[in-house]
Every structure is written in structure tokens, then in C-alpha cells.
Write a structure and sequence with these properties.
Chain A is mainly α. Chain A is built from 11 helices and 3 strands; from the N terminus they run H-H-H-E-E-E-H-H-H-H-H-H-H-H. The mean pLDDT of chain A is 88. Classes of the chains: A mainly alpha, B alpha/beta. The structure holds adenosine-5'-triphosphate (ATP) and magnesium ion (MG).
């Protein structure tokens, strides 16, 4: 019977390098190279090396020039606000705002008719912390946007989340519909929703808040639904078999179980919404991003660096705070 | 009172868990279901409150046959102590008990956990009756010992003044002293309210001690039905000695059913 039996010396050994593997590695290498070229990974490598060489004094680098152009104007950061006094209506010189003082400065203007620069002496009102104050107010507005975005998102996603569960949807069609609706919300990035909403509601925080609410309700709703579906069935069965209606079962046998996870997730979304709200202003949807974009376009990099610093510190504080909260609630 | 009329239940995989059972359980009776594991005790019990529907035959309650449309109404008159208790772990003891009242209370009141003083006093009475104390009220159900959880489950089953209480192995995981005291609580709570109890047990001695009536099931059929006095030693042994012939018969039947 043992026709095919070989002597143990002739048993096949394990081969590491096989033609098949070489072929696969080659194909993978080619595909990766094409993709890398499409995304300019090669350019990144070349330009970055050039920047390093240029930094030690060898040759020029576009990358380094860009960085230098920003950094040279970005520091020292600008925290004071200068306003021409002639533009302030009803200024009472005897009662200036806190710490503010008047300064004589030059106003350079280009006269297009004479094709000449005119230089005038004007008075400026200088508020030493004026710009910082303005940025902080804008940052607060951004946090508020994140807050309302999250709140509205929860209000949308709670009912949708319940309808998107197999065990609590009144009908399979409702379930499928709710799931689809939620993925639709998830699939639209905030910036794109914000673009549309700016068109509809005009510039300002409304567009940003609604954009955040719409996108994150898709994320939250799916999460709520999954948590409900994964809740232990026993307690639900116990209440249901005593004749309790679904909504009450949801309230008593499901909510206590899922609430801690829900809270943690909503908190995470809130944090994320504030971070996102900082960039929504770039398309005009309110918040600190609008100020950032304006200053960026005017090459006021010293103002830009103030904004970046405030964003950075805010995000740090938020992360620290929410970590504290999380250890408390769980 | 509670009438099973040639009830059978076959599961999707062909297992006949309950096979042509006819029973009458009068009001106020403490009826113990005995039988080896897999005999169909839980299945029979779950047909009373609609967790499982009979595949043939009918269950009637106060002369009315239980159907899908009047199920809710019956469920409200049945209290159940589940085999795995199924308390709500993160909810307080008090609210676990009060959750037995949910079917009769309005949605918004329930939503905000607003229960009237009378309701709460009712819960206190029951908790006291089963031997729990004021310090347990606000504790989470998950922070109680097994025996204490068992008692909370009993209190929850009785809080809605049910006419029938189903108890599926209420003392499965308790030590003998605890078991006796839990069964005592169950029996006296039922006596006070003139509620019938259908209770499954694995321990014959407790059945003999507490039951007004014993129904023994074997392979889905009623094997013995009578008062504890009539349960002689021979029958007692026979209940748990499922013969191999019977086992084969059941497996064979299952195979046939599937093929059909
Ligand atoms: N959902 C189900 N699907 C298929 N078979 C089931 C299902 N539930 C129970 N059974 C089968 O039905 C038979 C009776 O089960 P049942 O739970 O009623 O037994 P029991 O007498 O309560 O046993 P125990 O004392 O172990 O609780 C068993 O053979 C079991 O495997
Ligand atoms: Mg059982």
C-alpha cells in the first residue's frame, strides 16, 4: 500500500525563498512605488533631504525657505491690538480701556492715482492684551460650537440609534432605514457639510454647529445602537415577560447597562468636535478658524502663532480635564 | 385556574421538550416540578408567561386560553423568578423590585423613576418579608450575595400582586440553610396573597418538605402527579433514572422529526 512513502531523508524541507514569494514581493514593490509616486512621497523625501542639507549650508531649499518665512515673522507672537483712533467712534480719551495707551505711528498707504506711497502720521490706540483677548473670545466661541454640535448630535442620534437596533426597531425596514441614514451622516465629512451649510445659512457658527451635529450623529448613533444590541438579554427578557412595554424595558434593563459607555463616548465626541471646530472657520463656518484664515491670508504670521498657541493650550487642557472626568465616571 | 390541555413543545432542532402534558393547577397551590435535567421543566414553565409558545395544545388561565393577542394581560398576572435571576445589575435593589410594577405605571413616571409612596412601601414590605434590610435598598443588585439576589428576585416577582408565581430553580446555587429560608420566604409570600406557585427544584427533600403537590416530568411527559405523601421511594428513584431505552427513543424521535 505504501507506494508513495519516501525515506525520511527525502522528506520535503521547509523552503523560505520560493518563486511564488519572490513574485509577490516584486508585485507589492511595484504597486507601492506607483502609489508613492502618486502621493509625492518621492518629492517629500527629496525636498526634506534638501532642507536638511540647506540647513547645514549646502544649497537652497524651498521647504526651508517656507519655514523660515513663517518663523521669522511668527515670533515674537502678537498679543496686542492696534487700532487707528480715527476709526474708533466716540472714544473718550480721559477714560481709555484697561492698560490701553495712545501711540503715534506711521500709516503707509498706496495711492493708485499718483502711483506713490503716502506716509501719514496717525494716532493709534494700543491695547497690550487686546489681540489675545480677542483670540480667547473666539476660542470660547469654538468650544461653544463643539458643545452645541455635540448636544444636537446626541438629540439626533438617540432616537435614530434606538431605531437602528434589531431588537427595538418596530420593523425591519425601519431598522435598515435608520442604519442607512446613520451611515449617510457618517459618510459626509464636516468640512464638506459646512461648505453647503455656509451657502444656506451664511457665514457664521450656525453652519459649523450643524455640520458637527450632522456628521457626529452618524458616529454616535451607530455606537448607541451597537451598545443596545450587545446589552445582556436576561434582564430585558425578565421585564418583557412580565408584560413591560419596550420603551420601559429600554429605560430600565438597557440604559443602566449602556450609560457609562455612552457617557465616555459622548465625551470623546465633544473633545473631537472642539478640535474639528477650530478648522471649520476656514470655510467660513464660525469659530477661531475664521480668524486664522483671515490672518493667514494677510501674512500676519505673528497673529497666526498666537492663535495656534491658544488652540494648542486649549486642546491640552481639554484632554487633561476629560481624562480626569473619565476616571471619575467609570 | 391554570390549565394545560395536552400541551406539546418541539424546538426547531426537533427536540420534543414537552410532550402532550395535561395539568390543572388550582388557585393557591404550591406545585413543585421535578425531573432530571432536560426533562422540560423550564420549557413547561415558560409557556405560562409566553416566553415559549406551545406548538400544540393550549394553556388557559382563569378559563381563558392564552393567545398572542391577550398575552400582555396574562403576563401582568404572572410573576417569574428566573433560573438565572436576571436582575438588573447596575440598578438599586429598590428599583429592581419596583421594576416589577412597570407594566401598570405610566411611561413618563417610570422614566424618571417616580414611584408613589404606596408603591415604595409595598416594595419595603416585600423586601422585609424576604429578610432584607433598609441598608440594602440603595445597593446595586450586583453588590449583593447570591442568596440576597435570590430574595430580591422573589420580591420583584410578588410586587405586582400576581395570581401565579413561577420559580425556576430558585435555590439552585444556595447552601441548605439559605435554601430552606428562601423557600420559606417564597411559600409564605405566596400564602399571604393566595397566589399559586409553580416551582422547579432539583432537591427531592425540599420538594417533599414544601410542596402541596408534586409533578414529576421525564422526557417531556408527566411521570408522577400527586401529593408528596404519595411519592414512594421507588418512584422517587425512578424519576431520576432515565433509562437508556428512553434516551434512545427520544434521540430517534428527534431524528425522525427532522427528516419529516
Ligand atoms: N431554545 C432551545 N432550542 C432547542 N432546544 C432547546 C431549547 N431550550 C431547551 N431545549 C431543549 O429542550 C429540552 C428541555 O429543556 P428544559 O430547559 O425545559 O429542561 P429543564 O427540565 O428545565 O432542565 P434543567 O433542569 O437542566 O433546567 C432539553 O433537551 C433542551 O436541550
Ligand atoms: Mg431549567
Amino acid at each position: 500500500m505504501n507506494v508513495t512513502e519516501k525515506k525520511w531523508q527525502d522528506w520535503p524541507t521547509h523552503q523560505v525563498i520560493t518563486p511564488k514569494r519572490i513574485f509577490f514581493i516584486l508585485v507589492a514593490f511595484i504597486l507601492l512605488s506607483i502609489s508613492a509616486h502618486n502621493t509625492e512621497i518621492d518629492k517629500a523625501a527629496v525636498d526634506t533631504s534638501k532642507a536638511f542639507l540647506s540647513a547645514v549650508g549646502m544649497g537652497d531649499s524651498q521647504v526651508l525657505d517656507g519655514a523660515v518665512r513663517f518663523v521669522s515673522k511668527a515670533f515674537p507672537i502678537q498679543i496686542s491690538e492696534r487700532t487707528e483712533i480715527s476709526r474708533i467712534e466716540g472714544l473718550d480719551r480721559a477714560d481709555l480701556p484697561w492698560f490701553a495707551y495712545v501711540e503715534i505711528g506711521e500709516l503707509r498707504e498706496y495711492d493708485a492715482l499718483d502711483e506713490k506711497w503716502t506716509i501719514e502720521q496717525t494716532e493709534y490706540l494700543v491695547e497690550p492684551l487686546g489681540y489675545l483677548k480677542k483670540v480667547i473670545i473666539k476660542m470660547w466661541e469654538t468650544i461653544e460650537m463643539g458643545f452645541w454640535g455635540t448636544l444636537i448630535s446626541v438629540m439626533i442620534s438617540l432616537p435614530l440609534g434606538v431605531l437602528a437596533t434589531k431588537n427595538y426597531a418596530p420593523h425591519r425596514l425601519v431598522y435598515t432605514g435608520a442604519r442607512f441614514w446613520l451611515s449617510f451622516h457618517r459618510a459626509m465629512p464636516e468640512l464638506i457639510i459646512a461648505l453647503f451649510l455656509v451657502l444656506m445659512y451664511g457665514f457664521g457658527p450656525v453652519a459649523g454647529v450643524l455640520a458637527l451635529a450632522i456628521h457626529t450623529s452618524g458616529v454616535l448613533g451607530k455606537f448607541f445602537a451597537d451598545e443596545i444590541e450587545n446589552a445582556p438579554n436576561g434582564p430585558q427578557l425578565a421585564l418583557k415577560s412580565a408584560g413591560t412595554s419596550s420603551l420601559k424595558v429600554l429605560r430600565y434593563a438597557v440604559l443602566p447597562h449602556v450609560l457609562p459607555a455612552w457617557i465616555a463616548y459622548v465625551q470623546y465626541i465633544f473633545e473631537r468636535n472642539i478640535r474639528t471646530a477650530t478648522v471649520l472657520g476656514i470655510v467660513g463656518a464660525g469659530g477661531i478658524g475664521m480668524e486664522l484664515k483671515g490672518r493667514w491670508d494677510l501674512f500676519d504670521y505673528d497673529h497666526v502663532s498666537t492663535i495656534l498657541l491658544v488652540i494648542f493650550i486649549t486642546v491640552l487642557i481639554l484632554e487633561f480635564g476629560s481624562q480626569k472626568l473619565r476616571t471619575k465616571t467609570l | 385556574m391554570l390549565v394545560f390541555d395536552s400541551v406539546s413543545r418541539q424546538y426547531k432542532d426537533g427536540t420534543i421538550a414537552v410532550n402532550n402534558v395535561s395539568l390543572q393547577i388550582p388557585q393557591g397551590e404550591f406545585c413543585v416540578l421535578l425531573g432530571p435535567s432536560g426533562a422540560g421543566k423550564s420549557t413547561l414553565m415558560n409557556m405560562i408567561n409566553g416566553v415559549v409558545a406551545p406548538t400544540s395544545g393550549s394553556v388557559a388561565f382563569c378559563g381563558e386560553i392564552i393567545t398572542k393577542s391577550n398575552m400582555r394581560q396574562f403576563q401582568r398576572q404572572v410573576g417569574m423568578i428566573h433560573q438565572q435571576l436576571h436582575l438588573i445589575p447596575r440598578l438599586s435593589v429598590l428599583h429592581n423590585v419596583l421594576s416589577g410594577l412597570l407594566p401598570e405605571r405610566g411611561f413618563w413616571r417610570s422614566f424618571f423613576k417616580f414611584f408613589s409612596k404606596e408603591d415604595q412601601i409595598k416594595a419595603f414590605t416585600l423586601l422585609h418579608e424576604v429578610g432584607l434590610e433598609a441598608k440594602h435598598l440603595q445597593r446595586r443588585a450586583s453588590d449583593l450575595s447570591g442568596g440576597q439576589q435570590q430574595r430580591v428576585a422573589i420580591a420583584r416577582a410578588f410586587v405586582s400582586d400576581p395570581k401565579v408565581v413561577l420559580a425556576d430553580e430558585p435555590v439552585a446555587s444556595l447552601d441548605p440553610t439559605m435554601s430552606r429560608s428562601v423557600l420559606n420566604s417564597l411559600k409564605s409570600a405566596a400564602k399571604h396573597r393566595d397566589a399559586s406557585v409553580v416551582c422547579t427544584l432539583h432537591q427531592l427533600e425540599y420538594a417533599l418538605e414544601f410542596a402541596d403537590r408534586i409533578v414529576a416530568l421525564r422526557a417531556g411527559r408527566v411521570f408522577f402527579d400527586g401529593s408528596p405523601k404519595d411519592l414512594d421511594l421507588q418512584t422517587q428513584h425512578a424519576i431520576y433514572s432515565l433509562t437508556q431505552i428512553e434516551e434512545k427513543e427520544r434521540v430517534g424521535k428527534r431524528g425522525n422529526e427532522v427528516a419529516v
